[in-house]
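Below is one such record:
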Amino acid sequence: NHTVHGVKIPKHRFAGLSSSAGLTAQVRSVPFFLRRPRLSLDATLTGTLRAELCDSFGRPLPGYTFADSVPLTGDSEEHQLRWKDADLVDYLYYPVTLRLEWTKGTVFGAF
């Protein structure tokens, strides 16, 4: 007997980082240059995710802390990271890092 199986995996979703058992997951990116005035995230979230934009040393930028973050939930390949009273255009072409914190979900990538 021979069987052929196929799996269709959505773009960028081969592997992800998950929080489990009600624990909060956290991750911080390596420094990068912000090249456009928006940050997108591919994630499946049954809980919530918050983001913090930091300088290249990991210090939160004013107006871009976890407390300022608009929480994300749901399943989307293009969640838009947003902060209450801040616009990413202020840090275009600056070296930044991104810190994410979430419960009950899987993050596949940010772009």
In short: The beta strands are 17-18, 24-28, 32-33, 40-55, 72-80, 95-103, 105-110. The longest strand covers residues 40-55. The chain is about 0% helix and 45% strand. The mean pLDDT is 86.
